[in-house]
Amino acid sequence: MKIAISAESTVDLSEELRKKYDIHIVSYTILLGRKSILDQDLKVQKIFDYVAETGILPKTSAVNPHQFKEHFTNLRKNYDAVIHFTLSSEMSASFCNANLAAEKLDNVYVIDSQSLSTGIALLAIYARELADEGELPEEIVEKVKKRVPAVQASFVISRLDYLHKGGRCSLLQLLGADLLRMRPQIVVEHGQMRSNKKFRGKMSNVIQTYVETTLKDFPHPDKKYVFITYTTVIKSTLEKVIKRLEKEGFENILPTHAGATITSHCGEGTLGILYINDGGSKKQEK
Q: Which of 120, 158, 165, 208 is the most exposed place for a label (fewest CB within 10 A)?
């Protein structure tokens, strides 16, 4: 059975990784003033430039039911079934919109990732592997849903002005954080983003502390895959993170740039490590 694995552009996979894992993308839309650009066509530097010039965040637009129907219909021409992963239903209308489209089609399954960015990618890649092993769509959906709560998706934020402009922190928090050089950790729990720990100091040092803290707080990773997802990062800092994850025993360490939608909400200097914290898929299948 030929199964298509699908996700929105918020999955934050490069074209190379999308092709490698055969994941089909339908794009969010970014509004820069009156200009409308597809997420995957917009370079994040344009977002930084736009915010610096206007003081306003870009607006992000979820995939609507019509776009989903067209996307699913096109996939069904070449595949027996489609399994689609959405951005968390707590963050976006995509899950609802995808379901509205899927209801009118056969063999289209929609999974609420309860995550964002490459947290979604981890689930999509797992689904791809199950499909390649010959699992049926219903079996894949069941196994993937069991792993959804185990996705460890977190980031450390260099600057709070994007979160402030987006209404996710107060002016008092912004001023206090800037004064004390505080760098908050954002963790996805139950499909929602919340501030967890706060680190202090130079961002390159904070990132190393964040990585150590995350590995300690989520100590049962499936070591097959880990993503390092960032908006911008100093090369030497990224190399240190990669070496630390190699030491931890991760087999596939995948550095990726955050896409336009995610970048629009967190700004420059954001970095996260993301993995499934369940000890491995074999544990899930017992």
A: 208
